[in-house]
Write a structure and sequence with these properties.
It is built from 6 helices and no strands. It has about 110 residues and is mainly α.
């Protein structure tokens, strides 16, 4: 029995596919045996591959350590990459490329 913590959707889909292939079970029976929803197995991600954009963001953020996502966006656009600011900010956040905010020394807050 697979639980929610035992793996992501790809792992669950691969497990169901293996069960279907080895034991010649239908998708419905394999999912029922593993307690996995069939929609999980059929799920296909709509997210596009943006490896080149990720590499450009990493490169710019390594060269310019203090740049935030707005300035990284400008630099990446200059290199010829297209993409909106929301996608770029999400990628920066995932890669931890964003610079942490500085704390005010005297006031205890930002």
């Amino acid at each position: 029995m697979l639980t929610r913590k035992s793996g992501d959707t790809r792992c669950q889909a691969q497990t169901v596919a293996h069960l279907m292939k080895v034991h010649l079970a239908s998708q419905r029976r394999a999912c029922a045996a593993l307690s996995v929803e069939r929609s999980t197995v059929r799920y296909r991600s709509r997210q596009s591959e943006d490896g080149n954009l990720r590499d450009a963001i990493k490169r710019v953020s390594k060269e310019r350590r203090r740049f935030g996502h707005r300035r990284i966006h400008v630099m990446v656009r200059r290199e010829g990459f297209e993409g909106n600011h929301k996608k770029l900010r999400r990628i920066c956040r995932e890669n931890l490329a964003l610079v942490p905010t500085r704390l005010c020394m005297g006031c205890g807050s930002r």
